[in-house]
Amino acid sequence: MKNNEVLIEVKNLKKYFVKNKGFIKKDLEVVKAVDDVSFYIRRGETLGLVGESGCGKSTTGRTILRLYEPTSGEILYSGKDIAKLSREQMMPYRKKMQMIFQDPYASLNSRMTVSDIIGEPMDIHHLASGKERQERIFELLDTVGLNKDHAARYPHEFSGGQRQRIGIARSLAVDPEFIICDEPISALDVSIQAQVVNMLEDLQEQRGLTYLFIAHDLSMVKHISDRVGVMYLGSLVEIGASSELYKNPVHPYTQALLSSIPVPDPDIAEASNRIVLEGDVPSPVNPPSGCKFRTRCRYAMDVCKEVTPVLKEVGKDHFAACHLLDK
Ligand SMILES: Nc1ncnc2c1ncn2[C@@H]1O[C@H](COP(=O)(O)OP(=O)(O)O)[C@@H](O)[C@H]1O
Ligand code: SF4
Ligand SMILES: [Mg+2]
């Protein structure tokens, strides 16, 4: 299914949240959650997106879906900029793009039956009614490894893994092209994680789906991703083909994330030279000047304080933003 067609592309995407800390105007605080991010995803491929909690992964995903209004930048779907479309103009795109959440319990309405949870997106888009709707719900349950008998039950009657399956069935109900999987396995038992990832991979194969797969840890996205992007404090610091990025990480932050993966893996470079990231992640309200990673980088130089590094090509389909590459 993989070809060279770009399905999703974001260009210079920014999402700033303005928060009011107090009562007067000067107490306004601007959270730079996504701060000038650009990347593309080809049709049928999986882009993994990783980085520590709070670096802007979910905001990136939600802004692509227009669940958040972008502050600036372009969001291209099959080449068409959807960043400024009206609610009505967005409707056909809402059907093409879906999301699966980390916590399936919080994202499923506890007062609705499984049948109505899965049927709701079909109703919104007027896709099926009556017997046909029922049949499709049964089919979707079967697709995700559940069955008809589950349709009349409520979310609390299921295990975490089963609830995630219900969330997946719901996302498939509108027959989407693109699914953002926002840490879909982080809350699940390790034994269940592989089952869910395998199911997502099978569904991708069968339906030609395109995924943005978000996780906080590089080991979680390794098997499912064709390419991986690494975010730090609202910026994309490195992006490349998985095979390249895991073997030959270029950015000091990617190197540190990889070295913290506990299990030895022959595909991962320098696993034995553990780099410990010191200090906390700075606040996205007041990020460091120049390279945002400089306060934790063991290679930081004078230029890193002054000049913001931009993504540069370091190999085939592999880009990183670091002044070490200037030399
Ligand atoms: N709705 C919101 N209002 C204000 N700040 C937000 C909102 N959502 C996220 N943020 C802030 O934006 C930053 C990025 O958050 P998020 O995208 O959830 O990160 P991640 O998914 O990588 O953990 C964080 O500092 C977070 O506190
Ligand atoms: S630009 Fe400088 S501070 Fe930033 S990662 Fe590279 S060496 Fe470190
Ligand atoms: Mg998140």
The hetero molecules present are: adenosine-5'-diphosphate, iron/sulfur cluster, magnesium ion
> Main sheet?
8 strands, mixed
**CATH architectural type:** 3-Layer(aba) Sandwich
CATH superfamily: P-loop containing nucleotide triphosphate hydrolases
The low-confidence parts are: none
Order of helices and strands: EEEHEEHEHHHHEHEHEEHHHEE
Number of β-strand runs: 12
Mean pLDDT: 92
Order of strands across the main sheet: 6-7-8-3-9-10-12-11
Please describe the structure with a list of short key phrases separated by commas or semicolons.
327 residues, alpha/beta, Rossmann fold, eight-stranded mixed beta sheet, binds adenosine-5'-diphosphate, binds iron/sulfur cluster
Description of the molecule:
This protein is 31% helix and 24% strand. The protein has 327 residues and is an alpha/beta fold. The protein has a single domain, classed as P-loop containing nucleotide triphosphate hydrolases (Rossmann fold, 3-Layer(aba) Sandwich), CATH 3.40.50.300. The strands form 2 sheets. An 8-stranded mixed β-sheet has the order 6-7-8-3-9-10-12-11, with helices on both faces. The protein has a 4-stranded antiparallel β-sheet with strand order 2-1-4-5. The two termini are 39 Å apart. The mean pLDDT is 92. The site of magnesium ion has 3 residues, from helix 1.
